[in-house]
Amino acid sequence: MRVTGLVLSCLLLAGAGRAEPRPQPARVSPAQAAVAEGIALLHQNKVAQARERFEAALALDPASADAHYMLGWLREQEKDLAAAEAEYEAALVHAPSRAEIHDRLGFVRGEAGRTDDAIAEFRQAVRLDPKLFDARYHLGATLWWTGDAAGALPQLQEAVRLQPAHPEARYYLALALKRTGDLPAAVGHLRRVVRLSPSLTPAYVQLGAALREWGDVDGAVTALKKAVELDPASAEARNTLGLALMEKGEAEAAIAAFQEVLAREPGHASARHNLGSALMQKGDLEGAIAVYRALTSSDARSAEAFYNLGVALKQKDDFAGAEAALRRAIELDPQAQLPEAPYTLGVVLWQTGRADDGVAAFKGALAARPDYAEAHYMLGTVLKQQGKEDDALAQFRETVRLQPRSAEAHLSIGQMLRQRGDAAGAAAAFAEADRLRKLKADDQAATFAVSAGLKKLAAKDLAGAIASFREAVRLAPEQAQAQYQLGLALQKAGALAEARSHLAAARRLAPYLAAAEPRD
Fold first, then answer.
1. What SS3 string covers 449-462?
2. Nearest to 466 by CA among 439, 441, 495
3. CA distances from 101 to 7, 104, 115, 131 (A)
């Protein structure tokens, strides 16, 4: 695999700000003395004089690995990678077991885009000196960049063990953990990174993205706003912030974030797609359609652009336009990476009286994604209307298996069982549908009660806030925010034992809240 030199140039050099040879014995040769003098001059920023001493050392002893190593380091700082590589190679001729030289040679080769060669040198450095932090860090970070997160993980874990306070090594460890599925550990390390290096913008971006994925949208917004504050020009920070704001329902703020990205980078396709989604969330269908039409013009091979255009046109009841856009999206997606396109086309075809074509479209969506619960439900709905009861019931049951909280699927099962004379089965399905609908209504009411409680807190009405939060917990005891806000309010009121109980419930429901919880 080959990646560009930009990849390794992103790695901050760990412990390599000044290259140092190994400690010398008590009696040193003239060449070793010259190297030591050169290093002392480097510490005084007298680069030209230092170079002269290193060259003098080579004149005295052409086999001086230290002199070659230091000259290689100087060439590296000057971005003369070929000359640096030659010096490091010469050093290894005379000292093939020096791990730090293999590490620097690997770094230079990585900078030149020779990633496989770089990895080989880093691995050799680790074999020679398992405790060399630089080699562990560079190997782990490079493996992560090449997509081998599983291979990167043990190297980065060891690097962090060797230097726990090194923010960049911990940053890459967090990314490897996130990529390999350990999101809670990734969040924990990213929180530590921003404490170690409060100005490291990418860490705030990744923390925000991880918190958003974990479900802590408020925490994500806070982290991403900090990233934007640190680097207003960061398109990634603003774009990810916009997505988090959309999840909070703050469409206007999200639109502003995406527009700011596009003002700086008009060709940022992801931000333009997201702008269209935010406009749809706001209800500005015309604005969204204009954005998506522009995307289909600028990138006529983008299946995603045509799919999004089709969704927007469908919401505007332009079914002919939606159908054309969705069919084009499917044509542009031969590997069926976007099963939402045939699913949405199926809905349009069904809505316009072409049930058989709709069935084919839903089946196409399910061929691409067999666990697509919504497609199973819609296929069941159409089959039921066509009188294919056994097939329809099978689709509704599969919907429930994949999405047990689908009240609509339980209701449909109840209706079909009642038609078949299965009174007990129908009653059970109707009861579950009613229970799920009540849960949904109670959850919405609880969210409203939490909002009311927060407003009362802002007005210094602690007793009223506690009453609202208690109502929220009564309505939806499994809602993390209800438990959490009641716990915090009780803590303020001095009811510490009861507060701890509700905070523990909140942590169980949403582990990310543990990190945000104030200490007693």
1. HHHHHHHHHHCCCH
2. 495
3. 20, 5, 17, 14
Taking alpha carbons only, the member of 297, 275, 285 closest to residue 322 is: 285
Q: Which helix (H) or strand (E) holds 95?
A: none
Instruction: Determine the Cα–Cα distance for residues 112 and 473; give it in Å rounded to an integer.
Output: 59
Q: How far apart are CA 482 and CA 446, in angstroms?
A: 7
**DSSP string spanning 328-390?**
HHHHT-TT---THHHHHHHHHHHHTT-HHHHHHHHHHHHHH-TT-HHHHHHHHHHHHHTT-HH
Contact criterion met (CB below 8 Å) for 387 and 397: no
Which pair of structure tokens corresponds to residue 31?
A: 């060449």
Question: Helices H, strands E: what count in the chain?
Answer: 29, 0
- Cα four-point dihedral sign 462, 468, 474, 480: negative
Whole-number Å distance between alpha carbons of 437 and 430? 11
Q: Which two tokens stand for residue 414?
A: 């109840």
Domain ranges of the chain: 404-516
3 state DSSP class of 435? helix
Residues 81-114: pLDDT tens digits?
999 999 999 999 999 999 999 999 999 999 999 9
Mean pLDDT for the stretch of residues 486-508: 94
> Going by C-beta distance under 8 Å and a sequence separation of 6 or more, which residues neighbour residue 362?
342, 343, 346, 375, 378, 379, 382
DSSP character for 132? -
What is the tens place of the pLDDT at every residue in 142-160? 999 999 999 999 999 999 9
Burial of 350 (0-12, 13-18, 19+ CB in 10 A): buried
Q: DSSP state, 15?
A: S
Angle 374-380-383 from CA coordinates, rounded to 5°:
145
First and final CA of the chain: distance in angstroms? 52
Q: Which fold has domain 404-516?
A: 1.25.40
- The structure's pTM equals 0.80
pLDDT at 383: 97
Q: How far apart are CA 364 and CA 167, in angstroms?
A: 47
The residue type at 279: L
**Torsion angle defined by CA atoms of residues 98, 99, 105 and 108, in that order, rounded to the nearest 10 degrees:** -140
Residue with tokens 């639109």: 255
H or E stretch covering 79: none
Which two tokens mark 429?
A: 């399905």
Q: Which residue has the higher pLDDT, 17 or 464?
A: 464
